[in-house]
Specification:
Blueprint lengths: L1 E7 L8 E2 L2 E5 L2 E2 L5 E4 L18 E5 L2 E5 L6 E4 L7 E5 L2 E7 L2 H11 L4 E4 L27 E5 H8 L15 E4 L11 E4 L2 E10 L6 E2 L4 E2 L6 H7 L1 E2 L2 E10 L3 E4 L4 E3 L2
Length: about 260
């Protein structure tokens, strides 16, 4: 059993960035979902409403981001200076985030064809977890609810065997992909170690219409797949689930190829 895939999403809902290694921080992988696109009122925008957002590619650097998208010039975005904050909402959380400059807002607004703003979560911006599976002091980035998401490769294989047109793992936006286990083996795990880093396996990930967005095309599947098929065999009292949410319980660096141990 090993780690076969490792992905970051530097701006929430944008294109995946495949990496060979990543630093694990309390709120998730370093650089993962530390930026977010919001509307003029500070409400978060995602690929659920705006499938084109998945075509935006963000490359993090020591001083900010480089943004790219089809038909757009590359844009260097500096990390906002500490000091000024702006209240934004992601689900039920209100976060005092740091706004990016006007050039980033204009670039995103032009590509998305609607008013949009870019905000940043630096080390001084905190979003505490409130889920019953968390512990006091647990933090999360701009991810929906948990610091990381893990999916087994066999789970995707099992889904694709049921589909007329196979889908990519990237439609489920995992951070960690695991090979060498049976489909949905992760549903029975409570605690794991990846390389030298330990994680609580907190709860199943409930899936929504975002799974129907192809991140290569920035378009929603007209037949509602693969969600339509998942409803047929992955629906439970928690909703339609696929993959498991993780909370880090130690720090360190994870690498593709690292062994995975089930601790509980």
């Amino acid at each position: 059993m090993r780690l076969s895939g490792l992905y970051l999403y530097p701006v929430k809902s944008t294109a995946p960035l495949e990496v060979a290694s990543a630093v694990v921080e309390p709120r998730g992988l370093q650089h993962d979902r530390r930026w977010m696109v919001v509307d003029a009122d500070g409400r978060f925008l995602t690929g659920r409403q705006l499938p084109r957002l998945t075509l935006v590619r963000a490359q993090p650097g020591p001083d900010g981001l480089v943004l790219d998208a089809p038909g757009m010039p590359s844009l260097q975005v500096a990390a906002p200076d500490t000091g000024a904050t702006w209240p934004v909402n992601v689900w039920k959380s209100e976060v005092a985030a740091r706004p990016a400059d006007a050039a980033a807002d204009a670039w995103l607004s032009e590509f998305l064809q609607r008013p949009a703003r870019l905000v940043h979560m630096d080390a001084g911006v905190s979003r505490l977890m409130t889920d019953r599976h968390s512990q006091p002091g647990d933090e999360v980035s701009f991810a929906d609810g948990f610091p990381l998401l893990l999916i087994s490769r066999a789970a995707l294989d099992g889904l694709n065997a049921r589909l007329t047109k196979p889908v990519s793992m990237l439609q489920f936006r995992p951070n960690l992909v695991v090979d060498g286990v049976l489909a949905h083996a992760e549903d029975g795990w409570k605690r794991i170690r990846v390389g030298g880093v330990e994680f609580d396996v907190a709860k199943p990930c409930t899936r929504c219409v975002f799974t129907t967005v192809d991140p290569m095309r920035g378009e929603r599947d007209p037949d509602g797949e693969p969600l339509k098929t998942l409803i047929g065999y992955r629906r439970s009292g928690d909703g339609v689930t696929f993959g498991q949410n993780l909370i880090p319980r130690s720090g360190g660096t994870v690498h593709v190829g690292a062994g995975i141990e089930i601790l509980a």
